[in-house]
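Before relying on records like the one below, remember that each one covers exactly one chain. Contacts with other chains, cofactors or solvent are not represented anywhere in the record.
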Amino acid sequence: MNLEQIFQKGAFRSLIRTAFSNGVVRRTALPFVEKKMWQRIVENNTNTFPLQVQRDKYDISLAMLHSVARSVDRGLISKGVLDRLLRTLLDNVVLSDRRQHAIDRLGFEPPLFVLVSPGKRCNLRCTGCYACSDSQSAAKLDWDTFDRILTEKQQLWGSYFTVISGGEPFMWQDNGLDLLDMALRHPSQFFLVYTNGTLITKSVAKELAKLGNITPAISVEGFQEQTDKRRGKGVHKRILQAMENLREVGVPFGISVTGSRENAEIVTSDEFNDFYFDEQGATYGWIFQYMPIGREHSLKPMVTPQQRLEMYNRTWRLVRERKIFVADFWNSGTASSGCIAAARPGGYFYINWDGTVTPCAFIPYSTHNIFDVFGKGENLDTILNSPFFKRIRQWQDEYGYTQSAKNIGNWLCPCIGRDHFEVLFNAVQDCQAKPIDKGAVDALADPKYHSGMVAYGSNYHHLSNKVWAEHYMAKQAVNS
């Protein structure tokens, strides 16, 4: 039986599993898998999006494939962890066919994942923290509520992917149980955990290796100078120790980068990527451009429109030329078909430590609280059907998600909060969404903040429209 026959017989899962576990087979299988990915994503193009949009999706998927393969080749992912990774992430998330029942029941596709910040406590006090975390706060989700969120999203929607943030997630505890206990409780879920890394000791790393369903994304701001400046003296050294601890036991990890006006060039440089991906062994990377929310919010640290466009160019070069999986929450908008907030299909929503539910971690306005929802005898479906979420999804659809290629808006400007602030502001007002913290209260009432955000979106639209028109919407790049 040749590879083509294996694929046609529906054994693609087995092919991928074999390819990742056997170097000889992998070298034979990867070109075949790449060809099939190209056919499915680019040639078939069932959504009739611009072809360059589909090429972006192909390129970033290919980068993830090669990034994992490189980590396996280098011995950075242990056999046990790889097996669990394939069973949870590949079978339950990437190639899952368990969501059709939810689609039939709801009449639309539910979100792919939920972002949960179970506790506000953090052992660091980073400048401009979007979560306003501190070491004293006792605000947290109790075990039963956290457990119910994970159980319901799996049972109701066939969602097996969960993202965890904070506060520092490894500080969360309830009744003597912690995040590792929760991952053990939900072995079919795959957890991506955003962490400062300082609590990943050798013993914690060993526990992560036993579990096999958690990958830590460790926050860095650049090299030692930039990281310690924002996060505290000596933090970078502790981060490198955490990475060493994870390498020793074969747990794949990534980096999480906050791009700002001060470090934009550094975090997209070859030197930066050589250090973290080649030397330290990171498998993937996420870039979150600084958003002016939370503690000490200010528009000044935001990357300039010119910096953002250069970050876009550098990030996609890294993906295409070096096949390293790096995604920018804003500059990779084509890969996600635009904004993914408010429980959009393939997207997510956010639940924080006091139960507040928001469309996105970077939209600090809410109409629902999970404690109230559960207290009324309702479930997570209530969140999906909230007028606030529906309003945002309507905008997403009109801007491009459900449009033909020729009618799609500029997905280099995908974010309703950063690039279309007036749309978000009106939705907040009309749906009577409430600010979730003092910073959000102040921002909502500040006309300078409002005008500054609108101006930022307008300026980046003007700068990126030429790229969008020529690179994505040109006749030869459109299948309409």
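The radius of gyration is 21 Å.
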